[in-house]
Structure formats: structure tokens, C-alpha cells
């Protein structure tokens, strides 16, 4: 980490020097903003053109899915993006998605409620993959012990692997992904949000810190899903929310009105662990507040003003009233004392490069995908 | 107006939650602590958690787990599984549990149950009876040790005897209907309900809220417990915790409970 | 500091858990000295009247409790049997109660209850405002709380009745005399309504 760099925050969005790779121009505007204006926005069509492109994709999905039980697959978490996408998939696109949910043992009541109301009203068949808790617990604990920031990889990886397992099993060619430029155009720094499919990293951390054999946990590899499934089996990822004028507030209102869907105080609060990770662990231990990324995306897409974002950022990312309870709960679930958790909090910081990793392969891969027009935003490297 | 209780029932096996069908083929359903936390946030009326291994393994109750579960409950929690001594019972109560469920001990040593009752009061002891139709189909038989040991005892006779002995509450669980989600065993329930006046809760077979509604319409105040109904969703039995919301409960009561009163007053 | 009397009855842990989540410090009183700096006192209870009185009398805390409540006028909340022993006597047994609120404990009359199970009164029932009190601040009228009892407190003075509940008859589900509160239901097991009530008690 470059300690000699003094603190600076972008004059356009709210990304700051807690992002180690950030660069500013002479007006103090950061490279995230530049990337968005120069690379993303010109290629982002949510008007008639977007509608047409999306329509063509939907027709393809339907054609390929004829005679099959499902024409596409969609993972729901109970959060706004996946919920709204499911709403559109059924009501507007007329698709027949296999809808699944991965239960990592940390579901909030909100998440469960939201999935329930959607599934009930839309009458879709739900699949859930319940990760063995003893395995997940040991896996998550291993990441705490390793000292790295990306302690949410056990949940992330389980989701990706399950997604591809289902796509493989049911011979589904199209994955509907709720990822969207509207609320996610700014990228998380790799240093804090490392790849969830780097098996070299995962296996190294497992070897050193896991005690459980992990016999049922769904493991996957980047080779398997980006290369085998994508290129050999022809599985494609579609992000429908990028082709329409997706506005988070409106989406939430629609969901509330139509389904009795309940909103979250912040992104990713469907999982109690992710809430802890983003609201407490990253900001307090590593000095990186994911809200900066989330708010910056909303600023760039005109859904939040910089002043609003700055105001929100003056308050901590966690709720001071409930944080003790939350920390206690995390410790209880992990089977450790709060003292032990505190030890992990205080231990020397480690990063992905302190363990075996295939980061180079990912970089090459991303460049290849970029060249062939697959990725709309440069993958953010250290 | 008092409402009947609607009670999720969770089974613990090897420290994880499972659901069975006719007491067999346990399917892994997830982490008990998070499940209980969610049920608490859904403000369920009461919760029953049963350790289905403890009696068979003759193991001590998992006190740490019990303590962690109780810490998440702002509603009465009933815990059962392998409770054999007064000391175990007292320790479980001290961890924040309201009621303990006793099953095999009733058959093996009723006097200990009475000793526990003396210390904590009969309202805190729930007897869970797992019953299966006899081969001939005309009577029922009580099984213990998670459905593995037949006792030869008729539950209808046993409950009457237990009422005389001062037991506070009975949970009658149908092994035949367990996990099938095709409805409660109304025949078993009718027989047991007629035999006793102490509080009765029924378990085994509920597949829809309507099943619970039918039960309530017939009996008014009764405990309606269910496992699969509150843990599975849809035809693929996707694991997803659910429970009626306040307004859904009110609607259920409006439809089934309020007119049960009028039929009963006649 | 909120102090809960541990005289061997009631779900102490449940109360402690509620206050812990509210970030309100709570002390457990096991002997007289623990009651000294109490600002609010909770008297829990489950089970029988006689047993409760026997345990309280044997606890060694009765005298100090009496001093705090009667002389120092510290707010006290009796819960379930803890409320019943605030009265003079009970039909359930032979013991003499604390007698701090004028009334006796009687068995619920089951004549008007049409169900097979008449007693105990068990489950979630509505609590209706009679006189009302700060204890129920922000709690909607006819909110539900968890009950588990067969006897009820019969108030000799109607002014002592705060809220009522119907089970066969209308009985006092919450009472108040000066600084002495009693609730027949279990606030520690009544979800958000109960948590709200316990928070209100702490703020008196």
C-alpha cells in the first residue's frame, strides 16, 4: 500500500484513495468516472436500441428453450436486482426460468420473505441449494484465519458453482444475471474483492486453515465455467437489466406494490454475513467502505447526488445500535468467542497475493474477453 | 380473544436441521440457529425443537446449541430429545427454554418426569408421543427412540393416564403422516382429543395453511404444529422458511376460527 | 440499574436476553445486596402461588425487596406468578401473598369457554386498554401477548386495573398501584410487543 499518498476523494463521485489503484485527472475526477463516460456509457443502450437488442436475445432464449422444462436460469437472493429481474422475466419477457436460491446459512428474514412473496405470486418452481452448515462454517472461519479481506468468498463461490451446476444439469443455455450498470458500474478494487473462483487461492487457504473435509460443498473452477461451460457447452450470461432504463428506486416501489416485497437498508443485506462483511469488517479492519463503490455507481447514473452520498458516508456503514448483537451473532454461528473474532480483527492484514493465486490467468482471461467485446468494463486490477 | 397456536417444529440431527418422511430419509435443511432466528423474526407463536438422535445415542443434550437457540427466541421455546434426568431438565430451563419435551422417558421412567414437574410446574413439561397406525389399522401404537422402538402402548389410553398423572401438555405426532404434507391424521387427533382435557398440540402431515384451518375449525383452541409446511416451498420441496404473516394469520382466524366458536357453542 | 430477582422461578435468561439486545444493562439479584442500587425491579415467575411465595421467603431477599418497593418506591414489575404474589392470597394455595396490591388470586371461571381444553389459558391473547399506562406506550390497543396461567388477579380497587383480557371472563391482564406494576402475560416471550413493554418499563 502506498502510504505516502495523501487522502483524496473524487470530485465527481465518492471513490477515494482507499481504492489503491485510483487515479485522478487534473480536475480531481477519478478514472472510474472516466471509464464510465468513455467506455461504458457509449455502449450502454437502454432506449429503443436496447429494447430491440433485448427482444432479440429473449427470442433466442425462447427458441433454444423450446421443448425443455426451462429456457433460462436465474438465481434469487431476495435483493432488488434479482427480484426485479424475475418480475420482468415472467411478466414482461414471458420466459420460463429455473429459479434457484443458495442458502449459505445466513439468510435474513427479509431475504426469505421476499423470495417467498415473489415465488408465490409468480408461481415459479423454486430450487434451493442448502450448503452444509458445518462445512460453510469451517470454510468461512478459514478465511478469517487467513487474514485476507475477501471473507465472503465461501458464499460467493457457492452461488457461482451452484448456478453452473444447475445450468449443466438441466442443459440450460442462458443464465439471467441481475448484474447491472445502473447500480454497479463502478468496480470494486480487486485487493478487497478478490475473484471467487480462483481455486488456487481457495485451495491454499483451505489447506492451511480448514479442518473440515468439505465433502458436499459445491466447488467450481474458472476453467469449468468460463471455458468449458461457456465455450464448449455454449452457455451464455445475459444481463437484462442493462437493456432497460433500470432505476433502483422505481424497481423497489414496483416490487413493494406488486408483491409486498420489503426493501433493505443497504445493498447485499439479504445475507447477515455479507452485511457484516461490507458494513463492518471491510470498513473497520481494512479501511475500505463498499458504500463508496455503490453510491458512486448511483451518482454516475443519476440516481443519487454526490452531496447525498457524502452525507450518508458521514455515518458508519454498520448500525451502532445493533452492531454488538451482530458481532455476537457472527461469533456464535462460527462457534467462536467474540474475543477470538476480535483477534482475527486485530491480526496483521493479508491480501490475495500472500497466498497462492491465479490472478495472472484472470488478467489474461479478462483481456481476452475484453478484446472479443464480452466485458463492458475493464476488470479492475491492482 | 385467544387464538390457537401455530407452531413450527424443527428436528435436529447431527447438529443440523433435517426433515423426514414417516420418520425416515432425513433431508438436510440447514443451520438450526439461523432457522430459529428467522422464525423469531417472523414472530411465530411458539417453536418446538427436537433432537432426534439424543435418545438413541443416549447422549447429553447439546447445551451450547440449546443456549444459542434460546437466545434467539422471543417466544416460548420447547426443547426435547434425550432428556432423562432432573438435572438435565433443570439445566435446560436455566438456559432460557420455556418447556421441555419428554418422549421415551414417559415410557421408561415416569417417576422422573413427575419429579421434574414438582420442581418446575406441570405447565413446563410437554409430552411428545409419536404414534403409528397398527398393522391391522384399527388402533394406534406409541413408538419411542425416533420411531425405532414399538412400545405396544395405545396412545389414546396413555394420554388419559398422563393427564391423571399431572402432565401439562400433549403433542401427538403421526409417524404415518410425517413429511407427507397430505393433511393431519384427523382420526388419531379425534381419538386423542376426546380422551383428554389438557392442552393438545398436533403434528404430522400438514401440507397447507388450509389443513391448519380445518383443524382449527373443528377444535377451536388447539396447537397446530408443522415441520415440512414451514420449511419447504413448492413441488421440488425447495428449502425456504415460511410462516403466515400477521395479516395472513388474521385472515386464517377469520375464516376458520371465528366460526368454529359458533359451532362449538351449540 | 434494572434488577431481576432470581428466587428460583421464571425465565431469567429470557429477560436478560431482551435487555441485552436493547443495550440496557441488567443485573440479576440472587441476594439482598444485589437489590441495593436497583432503579427498576422485575419479579418473574412461573408455576404455583404457594411455591413462589415459599421460594421468595426462603431467598433472603424479601426484606430488602419490601424496603425498595414500599419505602423507596422503586418501580417493580411482577410477571405472571410474580404478579399474582403481589396480592393477598390465592385460591390456588394457602400461602399469604405480598399484599402490595389489594386483591386476591382466583381460578379462571371456565363456564363460558367452549373448548375441550379450558385451562390453562395458554397462547396469544389480546390486551385491551382499560385505564392504560406508560408501560404500554407505543403499544397498540388489543395487541397480543403470550399467556400461560390458570389463575388471575382479582383487583379490589378498579383503579388498579390497567388493561384487561378476555378468557371466559374479562380479567385484569395488567395492574398498577403507585409504583407496583403487574402483568399476567409474559413480556419476555411476546415478541415486539413484549420487548416494547420491557423497554418502556426500563424508561419509567
Write the H/E string of chain A, N to C: HHEHEHEHHEHHHEHHHHHHH
Oligomer: heterotrimer
**CATH top level assignment of chain B:** Alpha Beta
Which pair of protein chains has the largest interface, and what are the residue counts? Answer: B-C, 39 and 35 residues
The CATH fourth-level homologous superfamily of chain B: Aldolase class I
- Shape estimate of chain A: globular
Quote the average pLDDT of chain B: 94
Q: What is the first-to-last residue Cα distance of chain B?
A: 19 Å
How many β-strand runs of chain A? 5
Largest sheet of chain A: 5 strands, parallel
Named CATH topology of chain A? Rossmann fold
Biggest sheet statistics of chain B: 8 strands, parallel, barrel
Q: Separation of termini of chain A?
A: 10 Å
Which strand order spans the largest sheet of chain A, edge to edge or round the barrel? 3-2-1-4-5
Return the CATH architecture of chain B: Alpha-Beta Barrel
What's the SSE pattern of chain B?
A: EEEHEHHEHEHHEEEHEHEHEEEH
Question: Rounded to an integer, what's the Rg of chain B over CA atoms?
Answer: 17 Å
Please render the helix and strand layout as text:
The complex is a heterotrimer of chains A (382), B (266) and C (204).
Chain A: H1 31-40, H2 48-64, E1 72-75, H3 80-91, E2 97-103, H4 109-122, E3 126-130, H5 133-146, H6 153-169, E4 174-176, H7 181-184, H8 199-209, H9 222-232, E5 236-238, H10 248-259, H11 272-286, H12 290-300, H13 306-313, H14 323-334, H15 338-346, H16 359-371
Helix pairs in contact in A: 3-4, 3-10, 5-8, 11-14
Chain B: E1 5-13, E2 16-21, E3 24-30, H1 32-41, E4 47-51, H2 54-57, H3 63-71, E5 77-80, H4 86-94, E6 99-102, H5 104-108, H6 110-120, E7 125-133, E8 140-144, E9 149-150, H7 155-164, E10 169-174, H8 186-195, E11 200-203, H9 209-219, E12 223-226, E13 232-233, E14 238-239, H10 246-265
Parallel strand pairs in B: 1-4, 1-12, 4-5, 5-6, 6-7, 7-10, 10-11, 11-12
Antiparallel strand pairs in B: 1-2, 2-3, 7-8, 8-9, 13-14
Helix pairs in contact in B: 7-8, 9-10
Chain C: E1 2-5, H1 12-21, E2 26-29, E3 40-43, H2 49-58, H3 62-71, E4 76-79, H4 81-84, E5 89-90, E6 103-107, E7 121-129, E8 143-149, E9 151-155, E10 161-167, E11 169-177, E12 180-183, H5 191-203
Parallel strand pairs in C: 1-2, 1-3, 3-4, 4-12, 5-6
Antiparallel strand pairs in C: 6-9, 7-8, 7-10, 10-11, 11-12
Amino acid at each position: 500500500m502506498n502510504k505516502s499518498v495523501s487522502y483524496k476523494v473524487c470530485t465527481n463521485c465518492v471513490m477515494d484513495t482507499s481504492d489503491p489503484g485510483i487515479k485522478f485527472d487534473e480536475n480531481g475526477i477519478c478514472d472510474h468516472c472516466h471509464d464510465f463516460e468513455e467506455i461504458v456509457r457509449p455502449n450502454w443502450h437502454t432506449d429503443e436500441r436496447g429494447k430491440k437488442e433485448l427482444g432479440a436475445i429473449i427470442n433466442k432464449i425462447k427458441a433454444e428453450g423450446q421443448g425443455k422444462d426451462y429456457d433460462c436460469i436465474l438465481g434469487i437472493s431476495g435483493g432488488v436486482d434479482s427480484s426485479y429481474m424475475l418480475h420482468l422475466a415472467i411478466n414482461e419477457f414471458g420466459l420460463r426460468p429455473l429459479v434457484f436460491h443458495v442458502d449459505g446459512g445466513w439468510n435474513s428474514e427479509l431475504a426469505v420473505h421476499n423470495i417467498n412473496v415473489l415465488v408465490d405470486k409468480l408461481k415459479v418452481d423454486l430450487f434451493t441449494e442448502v450448503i452444509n452448515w458445518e462445512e460453510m462454517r469451517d470454510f468461512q472461519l478459514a478465511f478469517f484465519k487467513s487474514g485476507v479481506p475477501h471473507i465472503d468468498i465461501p458464499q460467493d463461490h457457492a452461488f457461482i458453482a451452484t448456478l453452473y451446476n444447475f445450468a449443466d444439469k438441466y442443459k440450460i443455455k442462458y443464465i439471467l444475471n441481475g448484474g447491472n450498470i445502473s447500480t454497479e458500474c463502478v468496480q470494486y478494487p480487486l485487493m478487497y474483492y478478490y475473484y471467487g473462483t480462483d481455486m488456487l487461492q481457495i485451495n491454499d487457504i483451505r489447506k492451511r486453515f480448514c479442518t473440515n473435509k468439505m465433502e458436499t460443498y459445491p466447488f467450481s473452477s474458472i476453467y469449468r465455467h468460463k471455458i468449458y461451460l461457456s465455450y464448449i457447452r455454449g452457455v451464455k450470461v445475459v444481463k437484462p437489466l442493462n437493456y432497460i432504463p433500470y432505476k433502483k428506486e422505481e424497481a423497489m416501489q414496483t416490487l413493494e406494490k406488486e408483491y409486498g416485497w420489503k426493501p433493505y437498508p443497504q445493498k447485499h443485506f439479504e445475507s447477515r454475513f455479507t452485511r457484516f462483511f461490507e458494513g463492518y469488517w471491510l470498513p473497520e479492519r481494512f479501511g475500505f467502505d463498499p458504500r463508496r463503490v455503490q453510491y458512486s455507481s448511483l451518482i454516475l447514473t443519476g440516481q443519487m447526488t454526490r452531496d447525498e452520498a457524502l452525507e450518508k458516508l458521514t455515518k458508519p456503514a454498520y448500525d451502532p445500535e445493533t452492531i454488538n448483537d451482530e458481532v455476537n451473532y457472527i461469533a456464535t454461528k462460527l462457534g467462536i468467542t467474540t474475543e477470538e473474532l476480535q483477534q482475527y480483527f486485530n491480526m496483521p492484514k493479508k491480501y490475495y497475493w500472500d497466498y497462492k493465486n491465479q490472478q495472472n490467468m484472470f488478467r489474461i482471461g479478462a483481456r481476452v474477453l475484453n478484446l472479443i467485446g464480452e466485458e463492458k468494463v475493464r476488470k479492475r486490477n491492482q | 380473544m385467544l387464538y390457537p397456536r401455530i407452531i413450527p417444529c424443527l428436528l435436529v440431527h447431527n447438529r443440523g436441521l433435517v426433515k423426514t418422511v414417516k420418520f425416515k430419509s432425513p433431508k438436510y435443511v440447514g443451520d438450526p440457529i439461523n432457522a430459529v432466528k428467522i422464525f423469531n423474526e417472523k414472530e411465530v407463536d411458539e417453536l418446538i425443537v427436537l433432537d432426534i438422535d439424543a435418545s438413541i445415542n443416549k447422549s447429553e443434550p447439546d447445551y451450547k446449541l440449546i443456549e444459542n437457540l434460546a437466545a434467539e427466541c422471543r417466544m416460548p421455546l420447547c426443547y426435547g430429545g434425550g432428556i432423562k434426568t432432573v438435572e438435565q431438565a433443570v439445566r435446560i430451563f436455566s438456559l432460557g427454554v420455556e418447556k421441555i419435551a419428554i418422549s421415551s422417558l414417559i415410557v421408561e421412567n415416569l417417576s422422573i418426569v413427575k419429579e421434574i414437574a414438582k420442581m418446575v410446574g406441570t405447565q413446563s413439561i410437554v409430552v411428545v408421543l409419536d404414534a403409528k397406525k397398527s398393522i391391522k389399522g384399527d388402533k394406534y401404537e406409541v413408538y419411542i427412540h425416533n420411531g425405532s422402538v414399538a412400545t405396544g402402548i395405545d396412545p389414546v389410553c396413555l394420554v388419559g393416564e398422563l393427564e391423571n398423572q399431572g402432565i401439562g401438555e400433549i403433542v401427538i405426532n403421526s409417524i404415518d403422516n410425517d413429511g407427507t404434507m397430505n393433511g393431519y391424521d384427523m382420526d388419531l387427533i379425534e381419538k386423542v382429543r376426546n380422551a383428554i382435557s389438557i392442552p393438545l398440540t398436533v403434528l404430522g402431515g400438514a401440507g397447507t395453511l388450509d389443513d391448519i384451518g380445518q383443524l382449527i375449525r373443528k377444535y377451536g383452541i388447539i396447537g397446530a404444529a408443522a415441520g415440512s409446511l414451514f420449511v419447504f416451498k413448492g413441488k421440488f420441496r425447495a428449502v425456504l422458511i415460511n410462516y403466515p404473516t400477521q395479516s395472513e394469520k388474521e385472515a386464517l382466524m377469520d375464516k376458520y376460527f371465528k366460526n368454529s366458536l359458533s359451532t362449538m357453542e351449540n | 440499574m434494572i434488577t431481576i430477582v432470581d428466587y428460583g422461578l421464571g425465565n431469567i435468561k429470557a429477560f436478560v436476553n431482551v435487555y441485552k439486545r436493547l443495550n440496557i444493562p441488567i443485573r440479576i439479584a440472587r441476594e439482598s445486596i444485589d437489590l441495593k442500587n436497583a432503579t427498576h425491579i422485575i419479579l418473574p415467575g412461573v408455576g404455583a402461588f404457594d411455591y413462589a411465595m415459599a421460594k421468595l421467603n426462603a431467598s433472603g431477599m424479601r426484606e430488602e425487596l419490601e424496603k425498595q418497593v414500599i419505602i423507596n418506591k422503586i418501580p417493580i414489575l411482577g410477571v405472571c406468578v410474580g404478579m399474582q404474589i403481589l396480592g393477598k392470597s390465592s385460591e390456588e394455595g394457602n400461602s399469604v401473598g405480598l399484599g402490595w396490591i389489594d386483591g386476591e388470586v382466583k381460578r379462571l371461571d371456565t363456564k363460558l369457554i367452549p373448548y375441550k381444553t379450558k385451562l390453562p389459558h395458554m397462547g396469544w391473547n389480546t390486551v385491551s386498554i382499560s385505564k392504560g399506562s406508560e408501560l404500554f406506550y407505543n403499544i397498540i390497543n388489543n395487541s397480543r401477548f403470550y399467556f400461560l396461567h390458570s389463575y388471575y388477579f382479582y383487583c379490589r380497587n378498579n383503579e388498579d386495573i390497567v388493561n384487561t383480557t378476555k378468557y371466559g371472563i374479562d380479567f385484569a391482564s395488567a395492574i398498577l398501584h403507585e409504583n407496583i406494576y403487574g402483568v399476567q402475560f409474559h413480556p419476555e416471550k411476546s415478541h415486539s410487543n413484549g420487548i416494547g413493554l420491557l423497554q418502556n418499563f426500563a424508561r419509567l
